[in-house]
Write a structure and sequence with these properties.
Blueprint (H helix, E strand, L loop, with lengths): L8 E6 L2 H9 L8 E3 L12 E2 L1 H4 L9 H7 L4 E3 L5 H16 L3 E5 L2 E5 L11 H16 L3 E6 L2 H8 L7 E3 L5 H6 L11 H8 L14 H8 L3 H8 L16 E12 L2 H21 L2 E12 L4 E12 L6 H11 L6 E9 L2 E2 L13 H16 L14
Parallel strand pairs: 2-4, 7-8
Antiparallel strand pairs: 1-6, 1-7, 2-3, 5-6, 9-12, 10-11, 10-12, 10-13
Helix pairs in contact: 4-5
Amino acid sequence: MSEFGHKIIFHIDMDAFFASCEEAIRPELKNKPLVVGGTKEDKRSIVACPNYLARAKGVRTAMPLTKAMALVPEANFIRSTKGLYSDYSKKVREIFYKYTPVVQPMSVDEAFLDVTEVLHLHNNDHIKLAEIIKNEIKSTLKITCSIGIAANKICAKIGSKFNKPDGITVVPFGKEKEFLAELTIDKIPGAGKATQDKLKKYGIIKIGDILKYNKSFYENEIGIHTSFLINVASGKSSDKVSEFGEDRKSLSKENTFWEDTDDRDFLQSELYYLMERCCQKLRSINTKSRTITVKVKYFDFKVNQKSFTGKKYSNVETDFYDDAVELMDKMLVKKKKLRLLGIKFSELVKGDAAMQENMFDDVDKKENLLKKIDKIRKKYNYDVVKFGRTFKI
């Protein structure tokens, strides 16, 4: 424990990450609204990331590109640079690990850091350490981040959004409940518009308003996230930071296409590619799955998904592919083109927990081969090895 008697958790959130990375390698894009997601010719695309100048004009992530063009016709509109964001994400994490070994990546552009045991190296000054990390990222990578500091994870995450961009916010230790009380409910991580609308119907506008009602009210009237909401309003949350998350339930990956498509050969190829990436990640964390979900988003933004649970655990893509194709085919509706395809692996088990399930399957040779391919891809480039299903002529 720190001298405060509790843990010190950082939540570090990169500022407009995709746009910032593009500006770092192309300085001519700075000082003007920038929208990453597609060029002005990619009219069916959506906004992947606007910079802060574009956000000031009302542009938001996942907005149709045509709407963004109407809001800021003078902006630079560019497609994502392949491999750039994962490369920068890796460099950012390398900086994190210089200062603490306890890092929990949450996505390509955010992570929790437990700095409790390293603060003595910085005169027990958590603000000083946050500034050191923030300044190193800015000086070496030419991008910025915002940091929330708190005694638990949810408060640190809320804090990191408080002074964006390039800010540091400390949620007062022991005063978390009071700090959160006056914030509006849209500041709660994961509280989408539907959740907010339900809460507002009962006069719950601020986070502190949540405590006006007891648990049974939320269970009977709202029916959503009961314990989570009450814990947030009370300033309570886990302070456990672990490398692969707390009891990771699933692993997923999806891709939004530049053009809507119903080309089945192309979709099968993309499906296998997404499975390759997920299975590579599963192997890297010594984890297996037996449930796969295929998700599609149609040209009209409607979403559908279907799942299948097999008899054995695996992290080999060929063990899931045929079932995944069958799931996808069930959702390929005539005359409805797709704009997005995604997959998710769930019911995950770690290490040897799946060994008994697979005891009589001859998978060793296949797994060993894929692990060697994973090493080659990591050393050189992911696309240095391609299989027939993903090889595009």
